């Protein structure tokens, strides 16, 4: 082997601990890129794959009722490749403990798997014509309640509790996220049962023989969907066409897309952050390592090695580390990407998962680390190439880093001799201290971003469910009701306070910007939903007349400032509002207006409402809930505690994601600190050896080093916490979506914990180096220049 | 002995700027060195001995003045030519040995040899021969930290001789050695000088060593204080300190 290569390998081996720490840092950076960006792509392709395999409808039409034969007319249209007609009945469902929830019965032909919107069976079989009272149950619901093939489900059909036997459990492309409607975007397998049953049987049970009300179709590849929709519209118009949903508009898909977009952004940002930290660390550490070899650079030049050879030699050093790190990163990242994808897919119940290897991601990771390795290696190598070899060799590198001044602090206060030396070490060697400080600050950033996400999520949830939503129960009606229903609700035992609201899907127009939102008409003195308005603004003043309160998210999206006007398009017509103030809430796409304003606008003779906020007697929640379901027109009753639990369930995945990030961040921070501390001590091997030689005790040296560490920690504490907070704010913002808004928040205790963990890690990670110094063969150490 | 001049230092100045203070390490130095000469630079600490070696060896550039080597002005060299110059014309023995700690004695010599010799086998053979020359044939596989100071110095000499440079620059080659080892190191220099007609510039502050030189240059405060010629240089074995 070439002598230069031999030297490179030996040098790496001599700085074994540091090299390994660097390799780990690079590996984690590359791994996080591969894992997170890879998982995102996997998920996108898995969704697409599921949709393709299960023939997810391009468009679905809902009518009042149509003869089943209409399917043939539509299939006959050009550019329509398949049509499935179904009877969809929304109804109730009685849980074993008699609690009513919602159900959706989907009648499909038992002859064969539907051509459009097929299902993927995870257990049992599909319906067969010989079955009676059989059902295929949607997988999320089955999983939530632990249902198995052979068990019974009990939907209410035509007012009767109708037991059906489960023959199969299946995933459906329409319900990858179980969402009943667009307004109900929170996945809710707890409160929503989707059952596939035999079409003829369902028709008979609801008295709709030969009728269907839902048609799903696939448009031929390459043809124009809009024109197909127009033609189908023409055919279905006579049957009371009520809804047309394109594949993107299906609630499940809409929710998935939001989720996926959020994931992509945070995955990218996280991967970038990790890679960036790895690169900075690599730069700082490698340039230090090379700097410490300056006498050897000088020697090489004295012997007649060319500047180019010297540079290549030291670049090889950094490139080897980057390469080893990349390889380890790939080895780590690929299975992690796969695991992340599976975890997500399992949690979301995506049946057909595709996990691939993305060469371009791997390449990006490798190239990025190599580039930073080159940057790290080239600057010290260039610096020494520019330097006369005589001065490169003249002095011990550690003293070359120093400038001969008394530290600032010493000029102000008299410090004892024992503190003076570490003080000067920190302040008189700006170059060394700066790179060390950089490592420490990056560790602060990593830990605060990881822990801060957890804090922000907890803060957001507790703020939402304790401060903003003060109700215990939320009642949604199928259709607007007269206010007389209030008397009926108030009479129910256990119901304490009732507030009437009207909720409408609306479209907001402001200048050239448009957004979908949910309009909530709220009593302006509402106690049960507390708007989070700017200081000095009261709900009463913000909701006066034609004023509208927007969530911060919407105000930003529409680029509005208080006083601006916007148009609200709703089933009640178009109306102009003045934007009065922003409410800082978790929900993204909501606007608030005064209940009275909306009633006036509706032009109806009597006020109507379609939802209620309630407070309930904690002892009677269950009974009250049942009683509420018996009020005519009630579509759903949500208990805040359950909703909060749903959220926490959904957050399980989020916490897992954060946990992985945190582990990465922590290992990286540890490697960073270990490296910084080790270099700090080992660079001064000779200095310490000399100290020991003149009789300084091992304990004294340990105290000296640790004191220096505490000083470094003190110096980096404020910038570390500040930059960490800033990074957390930036990072948390990437999670914002229509679904919910993240508020960056870090508990004071978390700041304290982070600071403590970093100090502890610093102190501990210096121990191996100190022990090394104290065990040093003094005879050997003092003999050597390097 | 040939009297052809190999090195001419003409009005050489070297200044170091240390903040507001200018350190004048060399002041208008004029010195001719003949090919095949063994010359000793003598002087107290800080008098500019190492600096003189450095500017001759192309490790450092003078602030003013010219250095002609075999008639060529090296002060005008660019860094590439300077590298060639160091590789082909100069061998260094440093005051602090400057061995690479992660390479063995033999590898430290190979490290210099590898600049001209590419064949691995011949590389090892040559390294062994060189170590043998300085009396270290059995220490080739030892790392610097496993060698004594004198042994390290001899490895450094073997390394300096590796590519048979016409000029060898030695900075305090015996400063860290006992008399006996010192003598051995000096003997190597003397032999080289006699047998290969290598020009040797030897820095020391030990006036005893000066007795072996053909000429002795005394430096003081960056200038030449005195030059004396030894008509009969003493054999190394007669030196003792
Ligand atoms: N890089 C530098 N920066 C500032 N001053 C320097 C530098 N290098 C050398 N000097 C100064 O130049 C003068 C000559 O230094 P030089 O190393 O040549 O002395 P020397 O004769 O070799 O001394 P010694 O016998 O102690 O090795 C000294 O005063 C030294 O302090
Ligand atoms: Mg000197």
Write out key terms for the chains shown.
heterodimer; A: 786 residues; alpha+beta; ten-stranded mixed beta sheet; six-stranded mixed β-barrel; 26 helices; 21 strands; 54% helix; B: 241 residues; alpha/beta; four-stranded antiparallel beta sheet; 30% helix; globular; binds adenosine-5'-triphosphate; binds magnesium ion
Describe the structure.
The complex is a heterodimer of chains A (786) and B (241). Chain A has 786 residues and is of the alpha+beta class. Chain A folds into three domains: 1-57 and 256-394, no CATH class; 61-249, no CATH class; 467-645, no CATH class. Chain A is built from 26 helices and 21 strands. In chain A, helix 2 packs antiparallel against helix 10. Chain A is elongated. The model of chain A is unreliable at 396-404 (pLDDT under 50). Chain B is α/β, with parallel strands linked by helices and 241 residues long. Chain B has a single domain, classed as Rossmann fold. Helices cover 30% and strands 29% of the residues of chain B. Chain B is built from six helices and ten strands. Chain B has a six-stranded mixed β-sheet, with helices on both faces. In chain B, helix 3 crosses helix 4 (120-133) and helix 4 (120-133) crosses helix 5 (149-161). Chain B is globular, with a radius of gyration of 18 Å. Bound molecules: adenosine-5'-triphosphate and magnesium ion. The site of adenosine-5'-triphosphate (ATP) has 13 residues of chain B, from strand 1, strand 2 and helix 1. Residues 49-50, 95, 171 of chain B line the site of magnesium ion (MG).
**What is the tally of beta strands of chain A?**
21
Mean pLDDT of chain B: 88
Which cofactors or ions or other ligands sit in this model? Answer: adenosine-5'-triphosphate, magnesium ion
Q: Structural class of the secondary elements of chain A?
A: alpha+beta
Oligomer class: heterodimer
Number of helices of chain B: 6
Structural domain count of chain B = 1
CATH class of chain B: Alpha Beta
| Largest sheet report of chain A | 10 strands, mixed
Count of discrete domains of chain A? 3
What structural category do the secondary elements of chain B indicate? alpha/beta
Task: Count the DSSP helices of chain A.
Answer: 26
Work out the radius of gyration of chain A. 33 Å
Could you list the spans of chain A in which at least 5 consecutive residues all have pLDDT below 50? Answer: 396-404
- Tell me, rounded to a whole number, the average pLDDT of chain A: 83
Q: Spatial order of the strands in the main sheet of chain B?
A: 6-7-8-3-9-10
Query: Span between N and C termini of chain B?
Result: 28 Å
Tell me the name of the CATH homologous superfamily of chain B: P-loop containing nucleotide triphosphate hydrolases
């Amino acid at each position: 082997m070439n002598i230069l290569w031999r030297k490179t390998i030996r040098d790496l081996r001599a700085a074994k601990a540091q090299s390994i720490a660097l390799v780990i840092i690079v590996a984690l950076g590359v791994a996080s890129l591969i894992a997170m960006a890879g998982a995102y792509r996997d998920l996108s392709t898995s969704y697409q794959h599921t949709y393709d395999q299960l023939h997810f409808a391009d468009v679905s039409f809902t009518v009042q009722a149509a003869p089943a034969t209409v399917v043939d007319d539509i299939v006959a249209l050009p550019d329509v490749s398949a049509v499935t007609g179904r009877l969809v009945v929304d109804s109730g469902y009685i849980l074993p403990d008699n609690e009513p929830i919602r159900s959706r019965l989907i009648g499909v032909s038992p002859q064969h798997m539907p051509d459009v919107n097929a299902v993927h069976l995870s257990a049992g079989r599909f319906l067969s014509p010989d079955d009676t009272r059989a059902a295929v149950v949607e997988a999320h619901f089955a999983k939530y309640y632990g249902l198995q093939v052979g068990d019974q489900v009990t939907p209410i059909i035509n007012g009767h509790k109708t037991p059906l036997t489960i023959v199969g459990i299946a995933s459906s492309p329409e319900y990858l996220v179980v969402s009943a409607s667009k307004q109900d975007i929170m996945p809710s397998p707890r409160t929503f049962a989707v059952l596939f049953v035999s079409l003829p049987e369902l028709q008979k049970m609801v008295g709709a023989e030969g009728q269907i009300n839902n048609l799903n179709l696939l448009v031929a590849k390459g043809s124009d969907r809009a024109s197909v929709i127009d033609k189908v519209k023409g055919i279905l118009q006579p049957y009371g066409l009520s809804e047309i949903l394109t594949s993107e508009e299906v609630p499940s898909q809409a929710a998935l897309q939001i989720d996926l977009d959020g994931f992509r952004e945070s995955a990218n940002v996280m991967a970038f952050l990790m890679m960036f930290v790895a690169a900075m660390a690599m730069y700082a550490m490698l340039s230090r390592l090379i700097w410490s070899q300056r006498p050897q650079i000088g020697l090489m030049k004295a012997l007649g090695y060319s500047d180019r050879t010297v540079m290549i030699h030291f670049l090889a050093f950094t490139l080897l580390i980057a390469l080893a790190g990349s390889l380890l990163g790939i080895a780590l990242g690929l299975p992690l990407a796969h695991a992340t994808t599976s975890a997500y897919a399992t949690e979301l119940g995506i049946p057909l998962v595709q996990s691939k290897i993305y060469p371009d991601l791997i390449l990006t990771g490798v190239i990025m680390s190599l580039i930073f390795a080159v940057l790290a290696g080239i600057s010290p190598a260039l610096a020494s190439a520019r330097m006369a070899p005589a001065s490169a060799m003249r002095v011990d590198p550690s003293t070359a880093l120093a400038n001969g001044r008394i530290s600032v602090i010493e000029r102000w206060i008299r410090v004892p001799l024992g503190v003076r030396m570490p003080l000067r070490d920190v302040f008189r060697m700006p170059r060394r201290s700066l790179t060390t400080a950089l490592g420490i600050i990056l560790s602060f950033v990593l830990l605060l971003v990881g822990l801060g996400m957890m804090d922000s999520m907890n803060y957001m949830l507790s703020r939402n469910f304790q401060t903003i939503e003060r109700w215990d129960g939320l009642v949604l009606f199928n259709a607007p009701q007269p206010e007389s229903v209030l008397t009926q609700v108030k009479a129910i035992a256990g119901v304490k306070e009732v507030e009437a609201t009207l909720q409408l899907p609306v479209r907001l127009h402001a200048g050239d910007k448009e957004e979908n939102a949910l309009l909530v008409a709220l009593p302006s003195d509402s106690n049960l939903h507390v708007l989070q308005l700017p200081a000095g603004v009261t709900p009463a003043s913000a909701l006066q007349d034609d004023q509208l309160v927007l969530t911060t998210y919407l105000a930003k999206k529409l680029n509005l400032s208080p006083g601006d006007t916007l148009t609200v398009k709703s089933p009640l017509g178009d109306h102009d509002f003045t934007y009065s103030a922003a409410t800082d809430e978790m929900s993204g796409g909501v606007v608030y207006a005064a209940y009275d304003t909306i009633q006036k606008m509706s032009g109806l003779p009597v006020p109507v409402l379609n939802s209620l906020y309630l407070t309930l007697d904690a002892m009677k929640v269950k009974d009250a809930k049942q009683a509420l379901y018996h009020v005519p027109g009630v579509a759903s009753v949500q208990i805040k505690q359950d909703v909060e639990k749903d959220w926490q369930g959904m957050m399980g995945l989020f916490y897992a994601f954060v946990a992985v990030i945190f582990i990465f961040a922590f290992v990286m921070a540890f490697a960073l600190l270990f490296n910084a501390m080790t270099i700090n001590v080992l660079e001064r091997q000779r200095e310490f050896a000399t100290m020991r030689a003149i009789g300084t005790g091992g304990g004294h040296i340990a105290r000296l080093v640790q004191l220096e560490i505490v000083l470094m920690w003190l110096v980096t504490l404020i910038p570390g916490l500040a930059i960490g907070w800033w990074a957390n704010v930036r990072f948390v913002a990437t999670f914002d979506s229509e679904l919910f808004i993240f508020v960056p928040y870090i508990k004071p205790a978390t700041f304290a914990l982070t600071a403590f963990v970093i100090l502890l890690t610093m102190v501990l990670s210096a121990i191996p180096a100190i022990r090394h110094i104290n065990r040093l063969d003094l005879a050997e150490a003092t003999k050597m220049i390097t | 002995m040939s009297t052809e001049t190999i090195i001419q230092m003409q009005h050489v100045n070297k200044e170091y700027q240390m903040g507001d203070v200018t350190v004048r390490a060399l002041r208008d130095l004029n010195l001719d060195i003949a090919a095949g000469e063994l010359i000793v630079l003598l002087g107290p600490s800080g008098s500019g001995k190492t600096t003189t070696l450095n500017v001759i060896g192309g490790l450092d550039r003078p602030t003013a003045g010219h250095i002609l080597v075999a008639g060529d002005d090296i002060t005008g060299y660019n860094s590439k030519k300077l590298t060639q110059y160091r590789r082909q014309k100069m061998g260094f023995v440093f005051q602090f040995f400057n061995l690479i700690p992660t390479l063995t004695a033999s590898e430290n010599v190979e490290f210099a040899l590898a600049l001209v010799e590419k064949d691995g086998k011949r590389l090892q053979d040559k390294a062994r021969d060189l170590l043998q020359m300085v009396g270290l044939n059995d220490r080739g596989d030892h790392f610097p930290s496993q060698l004594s100071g004198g042994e390290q110095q001899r490895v450094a000499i073997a390394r300096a001789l590796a590519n048979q440079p016409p000029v060898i620059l030695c900075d305090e080659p015996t400063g860290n050695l006992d008399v006996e080892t010192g003598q051995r190191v000096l003997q190597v220099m003397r032999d080289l000088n006699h047998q290969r007609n290598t020009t040797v510039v030897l820095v020391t502050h030990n006036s005893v060593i000066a007795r072996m030189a053909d000429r002795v240059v005394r430096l003081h405060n960056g200038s030449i204080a005195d030059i004396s010629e030894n008509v009969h240089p003493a054999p190394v074995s007669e030196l003792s300190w």
